[in-house]
Amino acid sequence: MFGCLVAGRLVQAAPQQVAEDKFVFDLPDYENINHVVVFMLGTIPFPDGMGGSVYFCYPDQSGMAVWQLLGFVTNEKPSAIFKISGLKSGKGSQHPFGAMNLPQTPTVAQIGISVELLENLAQQTPVASAAVSSVDSFTEFTQKMLDNFYNFASSFAVTQAQMTPNPSEAFIPASVVLKWYENFQRRLTQNPLFWKT
């Protein structure tokens, strides 16, 4: 029913079923994993009114299992990508895997999927840092660079009355920098790769 994918590794399509409504994927060498994709295989849908909450489990320094809610998958949202690299030092949360004695190995984490009512899924709060940005890292970097440049250039702004004559220095009106900034932002939003053409 479920699959799990880590970049550079084979797809896992056979989770370990640990209860009638709970499934677990092992993630060996989890310290080197940044993102994980959990998806439905498309062979068996959830029963009506049901979905799957997705948890990340890693062993803490004492070897105890720490479970954190990442999000969910449903028939309407059959796949999700989660960032797990920043979660390895966070706090655990309530989870449905508590009564189970799942084996923990220091270098192996787990993805757990618990089949639950959709109304219960809607009331759960995932770990905020597990959400993957919808903006790719290049676009995000470029936007932050533009903001930094505009703020830096604006910090040197002076009025015409404050300007002292200096024949060796050229001055650019702040409105020109602002216009360039807005045009670049607009073009980046329309096509993040426009600069390659």
TrEMBL record:
Residues 6-130 form the Hikeshi-like N-terminal domain. GO terms for molecular function: Hsp70 protein binding; nuclear import signal receptor activity. Residues 136-196 form the Hikeshi-like C-terminal domain. It comes from the Eukaryota. The keyword Ribonucleoprotein does not apply. One of its GO terms (cellular component) is nucleus. InterPro entries: Hikeshi-like_C, Hikeshi-like_N, OPI10. Keywords: Cytoplasm, Nucleus, Protein transport, Transport. Belongs to the OPI10 family. Forms an asymmetric homodimer; required for binding and nuclear import of HSP70 proteins. Interacts with ATP-bound HSP70 proteins. Acts as a specific nuclear import carrier for HSP70 proteins following heat-shock stress: acts by mediating the nucleoporin-dependent translocation of ATP-bound HSP70 proteins into the nucleus. HSP70 proteins import is required to protect cells from heat shock damages. Does not translocate ADP-bound HSP70 proteins into the nucleus. This is Protein Hikeshi. The gene is Hikeshi.
